Amino acid sequence: MRTEPIVELQRVWKIYRMGRWRRIEVEALRGVDLAVERGEFLAVMGPSGSGKSTLLHLMGCLDRPTKGRVLFEGQDVTRLRPSALARIRNRRVGFVFQSFNLFPALTALGNVELPMIFAGMPRAERIYRAQELLSRVGLGERAKHLPSELSGGEQQRVAIARALANSPDLLLADEPTGNLDTETGRGVLSLLSEANREGVTVAVVTHDPEVAEAAGRKLGLRDGRIAGNNDA
Amino acid sequence: MLDLVRIALRGLLHRRKRSWLTIIGILIGITAVVALVSLGTSMQLAVKRSFEELGYDVMMILPGELGRSFGGPTSFGASFEIDTDALSQVEGVGELGLVHYASLYVRAGGNEGFLDVLGVSENTLSFLKADQVAGRRFAPGDRNAVILGSEVAGELGLEVGDTLEIEGRPFTVVGIYSAASRLDEDTILIPLSAMQEILGTNDVSLVFARAAAGYDVGEVAKRIEGFLYRTRGRRDLSVQTMEEVHEVVQRALGILGAFLGGIAGIALLVGGIGVMNTMYTAVLERTREIGVMKAVGARNSQIMTIFLLESGLMGLTGGALGTGIGALLNTAAVAAAKAALGARVLEYGTSWWLVLGALGFSFLVGSLAGLLPARAAAKLDPVEALRYE
User: Fold this and answer.
1) Is there a contact between B45 and B220 (Cβ–Cβ < 8 Å)?
2) What's the CATH number where A201 sits?
3) What ipTM score was computed for the predicted complex, to two decimals?
4) CB of A86 within 8 Å of any CB in chain B?
């Protein structure tokens, strides 16, 4: 039996207007059709400028398509209000970035707490869960450290803990190992795989063949179009 | 909400130096507002206290119409004749005090020259509230007695029992007074009869009248006005109650206070623009952070709240410190006035409503100044914000 995809893109175009008068049009995505099934581990690959990040942003309801439709759990999110999109990002999606994007003024614990604060979770519950998540990514002892006191790999693990804070259905990672050495990258990859084994759908934009190897499906992207789609 | 406050505080503490500089801008504005408004209140309270000491049951009859002057020495120029016996018969009129002012030639020891002299009836001293520091008051039958202000007594080197000459007539010092509500310490008092003999007139320049017990001052003042019009056939004298005079003075002080407050308000406005500048910079600096907040699910309203709280907290901190400094300045001004000019010139004027108002207003200025930057932060496109370097 085929279940409903967690996120589905239908003939999606994304055109950016750039330059001084916003006259220059850049077609980041050109009619992409894609369905991401629940529980999948998807790797999105392709040269830079092929539209990988844009695809990820659309899947995570961080952006809207110029043309076409995006269905999140069957719901057309193309015309939803910003607050409704924020709610989906908060409760159903977790983002991990190449450059970690932690808040320098907040401790590791504070960073993991952040999505739960925006979700309105009570403080005690929040701190308990944030501590638990940090232990899970192997940083239980470093909860009170500021990002500047952590290594790159540790920072990325904090970012993963933050992405998992509100138990999302979909974890999106944009070059999560891009700024890390091979060994540290493996540690981050194993955390993503572990989340996937526990039922979280994972989509990763990557250049890293090891990451692609771990994924269940590889999606090639070239010039804003899907160039290859093979199940491993 | 409390958590958003905590996030806002972290943001402020993270760029501590700039936050403090911005806070100082607000601080200066609020300090100026609190100090100047307090000063205005100080003066009003001091004036109110002097009038209370003088007594609100007191009226003054003087030449001219009310409103042309404040009833001070400026209206002492003209003199007039008045039938005091008939005036005493007016219903509700109690004690009367008569004053005739003149600048007379005084000689004492080696000094001589024109000095301010008041001819006063015996009762007048109770209206003037002079503090007797030596000797006695005037007694019935005193003709060549003089009471000196402590300052003039000091300057002329006179003590009780000494003599001086006024317009060639010898007078003996019977008393010395110090501070008084309506009297400078450089004035010389002689019996009204002596003054009238010197000037060869029965005129007075000012009459104090007290309302009899149980009578309303305003009513009695109206009756006196009616009496004066009936007996004189014209309205050349006016009756001022202390309440009326007090109102006129308070109104003038109120205008002064509003003017000073307005000037201070400009300083506060400059502080507010400083907050706006800092917040716009903060939004620009933290564009990427705002993008991340949006990515982890912050709603636009939550981001707006965080930035508004940051600017509001800067306003409130500046306001709290400024209010404290303003209140201290007022205390210092009261102390300085006391040291320089003697007691009772100013009263402490920082009131609770001013403190609460200043705190509320500074938070408001901070928040308003942060409104546009906060809106700009909330409206950022998340993807563009994340891409911002």
Assistant:
1) no
2) 3.40.50.300
3) 0.91
4) yes
